[in-house]
Design brief:
Number of strands: 0
Order of helices and strands: HHHHHHHHHHHHHHHH
Strand content: under 5%
Radius of gyration: 22 Å
Structural class: mainly alpha
Largest sheet: none
Oligomer: single chain
Length: 376
C-alpha cells in the first residue's frame, strides 16, 4: 500500500498543471499594449483629435503596444509546447488536445463575433449614412471557421486575424510533435530534440519569408517557434543547442532587417528563457493587477476594438472633434472594454476552460489505473 501511495503521488505531481505566473503577467501586458495602441491608432473618426491633444511621447510609447501581437505568438508557442509535452502520439490523444484548444478559443470568439454583428446592426439602423454593410451568410461562416484572412474576406472582428494564425500554429505544432515522435521511435531516442529541430527549421524559413501581410502561418512562425524553443531549452538539455542556435540566427535577421516586430518576438522569448532559471517564471507575478489583466487578456483582446469603434463613431455624432471630449470617450471606451471583457471571461471563457478540462481528465483516468496495476 505504501508503495502504491508513493507511486500515486509521483503520478499526481506528474499530472499537476504548473502555473507560470510570469507568462500570465506577460499575457496581460501584451493585451493592455494592444488595447492602448488601438485607443490612439485605430483609424477611428476621433483619432485626429486625440493625436492633436495627446503628447507625442505618449503616442510613441503607446505605438509600441502593437508589438503585443508578437508577444502573444511567443507565449502561445511556449504554452502549446508545454501542453503537448506529455501527450501520447496517438490519434485519440492528439485529437483531444486539438479539441481542448478549440474549446478554449471558440466560445469567446464566437460570442464576440455575434456581439460585433449586433453592434453593426445597431450602427446601420441609427446611423443611416454609415458606409458599413452587413456581411452575408458565406462571409459569416468564413469568419466562424477562421478562414476570412485566407479567403480574403473582411473580418467581422478586427483582431481575429491572429486567431486564424493561431489555429494554423496548433495544427502545424501537432504535426511537428508527431514527426518528432516517429523519428524518436526510429532512432530510439527522445522525441523532443527532433521536434525542436523541425520547429527551428520552420522558424528559419519563416524569417526568410517574413511578411506581416500574409495570412499563412509560416510568415509568423518565427515568433511561435521562439516560444516553443524557449520551453524546450528550459525542459530538455539536449534541445538547448537547437534553441540557442535558432536565437542566434533570429538575432542576425533582426540586425540585418531592423524590423521592430521581429525584435519584439525575440526579446520576449529570451526574457522567458532567462527567467526559466530558478523557477522565476512561476514566482514572478508582477502584482495582482497585472495578473488580473493576464487572466482576462484573451477576452479583452477580443472585445476591445469592437467596443472602441462603436463608442467612437457614436461619440463623434455627439461631440464632433472636440479634443477634451475625445479623451473622455477614449477613457470611457477602455473602461467599458474591461467590463465587457470581465463579463465575457466569467460567463463564457471560464465555461470553455471548464469544458476543456473535462476532456483532459480522460487522459488522467487512463494513466492512473495503469500505475495502480503496476503498484499492485
Amino acid at each position: 500500500m505504501a508503495s502504491y501511495l508513493r507511486k500515486f503521488r509521483k503520478v499526481e505531481y506528474f499530472l499537476k498543471e504548473i502555473r507560470f505566473q510570469f507568462i500570465d503577467a506577460l499575457r496581460g501586458i501584451a493585451a493592455l499594449g494592444v488595447c492602448f495602441h488601438h485607443l490612439l491608432d485605430s483609424n477611428t473618426v476621433l483619432e485626429a483629435s486625440l493625436r492633436r491633444h495627446v503628447p507625442s511621447i505618449i503616442q510613441e510609447v503607446v505605438s509600441w503596444g502593437a508589438y503585443g501581437v508578437e508577444v502573444f505568438f511567443v507565449i502561445s508557442g511556449f504554452v502549446i509546447t508545454y501542453s503537448l509535452r506529455n501527450v501520447p502520439i496517438t490519434f485519440s490523444a492528439l485529437g483531444r488536445f486539438a479539441l481542448r484548444r478549440q474549446l478554449r478559443l471558440d466560445p469567446p470568439y464566437w460570442t464576440v463575433l455575434a456581439l460585433a454583428l449586433v453592434l453593426s446592426c445597431i450602427e446601420i439602423h441609427f446611423l443611416p449614412h454609415s458606409s458599413d454593410v452587413l456581411p452575408n451568410v458565406s462571409e459569416v461562416v468564413a469568419n466562424v471557421v477562421y478562414l476570412q484572412e485566407i479567403l480574403q474576406i473582411k473580418a467581422i472582428v478586427h483582431v481575429a486575424w491572429t486567431l486564424c494564425l493561431e489555429v494554423q500554429f496548433y495544427l502545424i505544432m501537432i504535426a511537428v510533435v508527431v514527426i518528432g515522435g516517429w523519428l524518436g521511435i526510429a532512432f530510439r531516442a527522445d522525441r523532443r530534440p527532433f521536434a525542436a529541430v523541425l520547429t527551428a527549421i520552420l522558424g528559419v524559413l519563416s524569417l526568410l519569408v517574413y511578411d506581416e501581410r500574409s495570412p499563412w502561418f509560416l510568415s509568423f512562425w518565427c515568433h511561435f517557434a521562439a516560444g516553443a524553443l524557449a520551453f524546450w531549452a528550459m525542459e530538455n538539455g539536449s534541445a538547448r543547442w537547437v534553441a540557442f542556435s535558432y536565437f542566434g540566427i533570429f538575432l542576425l535577421f533582426c540586425i540585418q532587417d531592423g524590423v521592430p516586430r521581429m525584435m519584439a518576438g525575440l526579446v520576449s522569448a529570451l526574457i522567458v528563457l532567462g527567467l526559466s532559471r530558478g523557477d522565476r517564471l512561476k514566482s514572478w507575478s508582477l502584482g495582482w493587477g497585472v495578473q488580473y489583466f493576464g487572466r482576462i487578456s484573451y477576452s479583452l483582446y477580443l472585445v476591445h476594438f469592437s467596443v472602441l469603434e462603436f463608442i467612437m463613431r457614436g461619440a463623434y455624432k455627439v461631440t464632433g472633434e472636440n479634443q477634451w471630449a475625445a479623451v473622455f470617450w477614449v477613457i470611457l471606451a477602455f473602461g467599458i472594454s474591461v467590463v465587457v471583457a470581465h463579463l465575457l471571461y466569467v460567463t463564457v471563457e471560464r465555461w470553455g476552460m471548464s469544458l476543456s478540462s473535462q476532456f483532459k481528465q480522460v487522459r488522467k483516468r487512463q494513466i492512473i489505473p495503469a500505475i495502480v496495476e503496476i503498484a499492485d
